[in-house]
Amino acid sequence: MSFAQTLDNLPLQKSTLVRGFEELIAPKSDAELESMARTSRALTLQNFGRTMRLFAPLYLSNECINNCRYCGFSRDNPILRVTLSVEEVAAEAHYLWQAGFRQVLLVAGEHPKFVSGDYLVECVRALASDFPSIAIEVGPMASSDYVPIVRAGAEGLIVYQETYQRAVYAELHTAGPKRDFDYRLDCPERAYAAGFRRLGVGALFGLWRWQDEAIALAAHVDYLLRRCWQAQITISLPRLRPAAGGFRPLFSISDRELAQLVCALRITFPQVGIVLSTRERPSLRDALVSLGVTMMSAGSHTEPGGYTRRGTEHLHQTVGGRIIPPDFQDGEDRLATGQFEISDDRPPERIATILRQRGFEPVWKDWEQTLSG
Prior knowledge:
With about 375 residues, the protein is an alpha/beta fold. It has a single domain, classed as Aldolase class I (TIM Barrel), CATH 3.20.20.70. Helix content is about 35%, strand content about 15%. The chain contains 13 helices and 13 strands. Strands 1-3-4-5-7-8-9-10 form an eight-stranded parallel β-barrel, surrounded by four helices. A hairpin with a 2-residue loop joins strand 11 and strand 12. Helix 3 packs across helix 11.
């Protein structure tokens, strides 16, 4: 039985754990929320100590064959695109290595012509000696296609379902292979079968009612913990941010509701990692550190070449499937277009300092391939 069947039956057949989670995300008074926060803090300290894993995304390509109404990389957006060479990827990675990072997330739009399995293998292999923890966030692939990437040195795979509502998903994804809801939904299991030891899932909050998405996400995590029991599971809670194309969130989740969601997830899943990105503003990120978040990105760029400005000589636009040179205006910044705007642009060392001031130890590296057996 796949999770697709579980999801379709979810309204009528919630597990005891998911029903408990549903109660935790119901409207709460300030006193009730504070009680949840105390429990969440205690469980986080018990299971993770006073540590915070830091990582950085490294964007390989913003080429994409999908039309997703909310995404800056959507194929019909007239953005500046580029795919970094392996050498340029290595240069970006070296920048991050010098900044202290030993955990990196390789991100790319879905385009087999530019981001092939062989290309990903080469990128991972080029970074493996310097980065003990390499994860990928790319278009879903077959399990057999993941195997060479794992063998090259990748240990984590991140895939957001975006929305767990089938009708909403179909409306938002109008062209490309990403239209296949079930293939994306089953991606973590294919990755697990290929040997990935860390699986990350999440929903993009702002596409549907947050409570409905959260319940489906909790059910997915519950399923993966039982089905992929040898893997570490992490949960990401990205909120929709402005991006090329001008899509605006259809639904909102307030800061208070996001904090409640973090606490509810920690209480329900005491040993699961919770990830917070630079989509959120600094003050909120600082506040959520003590509530249940265990992993944060820092100093992020969401455009290929953003750290070193590599690849700018290859910039182009793709119009109707045709690659055309960009028409730069005087003074225009010649850099690839990012996937979305970030809110926390503080450098990594500043975030590390703030964590220490709050009594947390920033962890740049906590996984070594040679120790995995």
